[in-house]
Amino acid sequence: MSTNVKRTYGSKRGSTFRSKSSLIPSSPVSDESSPKRKRVLQEHSNLTDDNLQPTPKRARTLSRAKENKKEIKKQKTLTQLHFCIDQTTLRSCTRCGLSYTKGAPDDESLHRTQCLRIQKGMEWGREEDKEMAKCNVLQVASGIRLKDKKKGRIICFKADVGGKIGSKLTALLETINLTLSSPPLTPEILRDSKAYLFLLPSSTPSGREKIAGCIIAQRISTAMAIASPAECEAVVQSSCSSDTHTQSTALIAVDTGAGLFCHPTPLPTPMGISRLFVPSTHRRQGIARHLLSAAAATFIHGCPLDPRKGEVAFTQPTGDGSAVMMDWGGGGVRIYEE
């Protein structure tokens, strides 16, 4: 009896012609042998330590290192100082008159700014011109010819004005107070005062003007008359003698170095000059006289004042201020206290 045998597998020859799909095993392929998983591992293996997310401790260390590098870059260059026992560190500038401590950064910075302002003055620009109508700034004189043939103008406004003009005046008054060693003016004084500025055209085409002079005129009620030269001389001589019963008890000393004394009796006086300043580069041109004359003519509307009649007073002037006061006022100017 013949038996039919059915083949359930292919022969060796037939296996060579099998398709590639028949070579795929029937069992599931593990993830470890997957080519896609191998590529991911290969990508991770190519990552460096810099690309990896640092741990919190390492992140704090890196941030500290970066901060230390920034501090080293920002560190200022140190200056070696030496003690000099036989010389003082206090200096007095011959150009601006300001005393400062040499070697102190704050003092030297203040001196540079102050010296530059005193020599060249400050500027009046287009920003201030735009606010002139808003702040009631008046031009009281124009085309004023100076001794060097330059022409300028004088403007006037309230001393307690705000805005950019007020900021400009505040910076100017700080410079003036430092120069004159004077205390700042109180808000009450500024409320009763007017500022007069002398403006000169700048040599540059920027359209800005130089502030070549400034005075602050204050409304006052009384002032004291200045003693005559003969009375002042008598006081000086009596101070040198042993006799104390002299006329010195009836006079008040304003500036003993300059021999300036005044009578203690208060006299009615409508206007006082609390501040007078002209930069050193614009002096000897008659700017102070023009400012004082403009203030005397316009301070009280419709009532010009005459300094020779004692209608104008100064507040404890310096040596240069005393010379201007005597020359302009003809000996009639008085002294008052702020």
From TrEMBL:
Q: Where is this region: Disordered?
A: 1-70
Q: Domain of life here?
A: Eukaryota
Keywords, alphabetical: Acyltransferase, Cell cycle, Metal-binding, Nucleus, Transferase, Zinc, Zinc-finger
Alphabetical GO biological process terms: mitotic sister chromatid cohesion
Domain N-acetyltransferase ESCO zinc-finger intervals: 80-115
Instruction: List where in the cell it is found.
Output: Nucleus
Keyword flag 4Fe-4S:
no
Q: What residue stretches are annotated with the N-acetyltransferase ESCO acetyl-transferase domain?
A: 270-330
* One GO cellular component term noted in the UniProt record for this chain: chromatin
Biased segments, Polar residues type: 43-54
Renumbered to this chain, the Low complexity biased-composition regions fall at: 19-32
Sequence similarity: Belongs to the acetyltransferase family. ECO subfamily.
- For this entry, the protein name equals N-acetyltransferase ECO1
Species? Sphagnurus paluster
